[in-house]
Amino acid sequence: GGRLLKQDEFEFTLSSTDDADNATQTVKNNADGTVVFANLKYDQEDIGKTYNYKVVEKVPTPQEGGMTYSANILTFKVTVTDAGGGVLTATKSDITGETEFVNVYKAKGEFDVNAGIGVTKRLDAGGRLLKQDEFEFTLSSTDDADNATQTVKNNADGTVVFANLKYDQEDIGKTYSYKVVEKVPTPQEGGMTYSANILTFKVKVTDAGGGILIATKSDVTGDTEFVNEYKAKGEFDVNAGIGVTKRLDAGGRLLKAGEFSFTLNSTDDPDNNQTVTNAADGTVIFANLKYDQADIGKTYNYKVVEKVPTPPEGGMTYSANVLTFKVKVTDAGGGVLTATKSDVTGDTEFVNEYKAKGEYDIKALLNPRKELSGRPLENQEFNFSLWLDNQQIQSVKNNADGTIPFDKLTYTEADIGKTFIYTISEVVPEVPAAGITYDTMVLTFKITVTDAGNGQLAIKAEKPKDLTFNNIYVDPKKPNLQHPWGGVYFNLGDCFE
Question: How far is residue 88 from each of residues 17, 20, 52, measured CA to CA in Å?
């Protein structure tokens, strides 16, 4: 774990039963883990001999608590031969066991949170006493996974007892951070203000040897006592109890979310003043009016009005309605207040009226025209009808310059969002004029009306390419022939006298 190997901490013996000169060595480890024995020495008496050696860790008496000592036995042989010239060669062989001796250290320790910190609970609630298991607390740590979270409840005497924090050899040398908070239930109890206190502390773990760990606290912040306050509360639901709504009388224009603003004000309860906007469905949602024990026995006056913007929208007539009501606050016990409405005056529905206008100038923007070939066009010569939904809505005659002077089409807010399809056709008289071939074209155009705001309408037109009614005149007193090569007319009278 976190305990480091120390210089001369463990002892080792190298022994031989057949090499009296190197019979036994006893040494201790270095801090880096090396175990250094003196060299084995030989002379001419050892030539041709093979010696057996054994290395073991020497287990102390008494053994250190928590320490499991290595049972490894390392054996090897050395054969001594003469290399000549007074030099011997020592050759190892038959190595068995491990060259690394591994000890395992186990240690345990605990930190008594109750004795070392002493978390307590206090409830300030008048005559209401703290109950067994009434509140819940968590002890958590982000860096100590083994003691990551505990959740416990208070005792009737206010003590909050956590289980001891437990550690082992892996924790040696480490410092852990802990946090104790009160767990706020869902839903919260009405009238209860829960402690926001955060108690933090650290615990450092050190090795005392013999398998024993010491856990030492430090850096305690926050209060060890968690204090809750209980009070009575109540609300008045304006939406359920009054139900303010918005209606817009605007023809095809629909009410939009957030379009109009409303204020709820009180001169004797300013803490509940508010400004809100309407929803698309016309509801006007105010926050609940909130009360506490200081309001018991009081009656408050409220007023709701529509807030007229600056500048107001053109075409809009804003509601002058004033809605008033009272709320009386009484204590229902158990931390609950009852809020009762009375004296409601005015309408709960606020109605605005929107007027808008727009027009489409057929003559200027569509510009239908009349042309006559064969002779000059005369003023008021031909008749034209404007139709909508199979009904004739205008009838006019052409001007000498070929314009067809229909009146402007006018629209109101009732037309917002609508599309109109119009047709223009030339009216062929029951007895057609002599020599005239009438154009049977039906000119169709589409008008879409939208609201541009401030009382103005946006008019969009879709029109065809051909906007001209073409009639042909041929003098009926002169016989006409059609040129066989392409419709060029000529009069025989022009050829003969």
Answer: 21, 18, 18
pLDDT in tens, 200-245: 999 999 999 999 999 999 999 999 999 999 787 899 999 999 999 9
What sign for the dihedral angle of Cα 90, 94, 99, 103? negative
Q: How far apart are the first and last CA of the chain?
A: 135
Which SS3 state, helix, strand or coil, does residue 146 take?
helix
Judge whether 323 and 242 are in contact, CB under 8 Å.
yes
CA atoms within 13 A on the CB side of 144: 24
- List residues bridging with 333 in a β-sheet: 336
What tokens were used for 130? 């703290």
Per-residue pLDDT tens for 90-110? Answer: 999 999 999 999 999 999 999
Contact between 101 and 57 under an 8 Å Cβ cutoff? The reply is yes
Apex 429 CA angle, 426 and 435, nearest 5 = 90
- Is residue 387 within 8 A of residue 423, CB to CB? The reply is yes
Q: Are 423 and 444 in contact (CB under 8 A)?
A: yes
Q: From the CA atom positions of the chain, what is the Rg in Å?
A: 53
Structure tokens at 30: 């270095």
Distances, alpha carbon 165 to alpha carbons 140, 141, 467, in Å: 11, 11, 94
Alpha-carbon gap, residue 147 to 152, rounded angstroms:
14
Report field, pTM of the whole predicted structure over 0.70? no
Q: List the helix and strand counts (H, then E) for the chain.
A: 2, 39
> Which neighbouring-strand residues pair with 69?
none
Contact in structure between 44 and 56 (CB atoms under 8 Å):
no
How far is residue 240 from each of residues 260, 264, 301, 439, measured CA to CA in Å?
Answer: 20, 15, 18, 67
- Asked if residue 74 lies in contact with residue 57, where contact means CB atoms within 8 angstroms, the answer is no
Whether 471 and 436 have beta carbons less than 8 Å apart is answered as: yes
Which stretches does DSSP call E strand in 266-348? Answer: 274-277, 289-292, 299-307, 316-317, 322-333, 336-345
Tell me the DSSP string of 219-241. EEES-SEEEEEE--EEEE-HHHH
Determine contact, residues 354/248, Cβ cutoff 8 Å.
yes
Residue with tokens 């001169």: 267
Tell me 486's DSSP state.
Answer: T
Chain segment 158-186, per-residue pLDDT in tens: 999 999 999 999 999 999 999 999 999 99
Q: Strands (DSSP E) along 44-154, which ranges?
A: 50-58, 67-68, 73-84, 87-96, 104-105, 108-111, 120-124, 136-140, 149-153
8 Å CB contact between 289 and 277: no
CB burial of residue 476 (10 Å; 0-12, 13-18, 19+): exposed
- Distance of alpha carbon 470 from alpha carbon 23, whole angstroms: 136
The DSSP letter of residue 115 is H
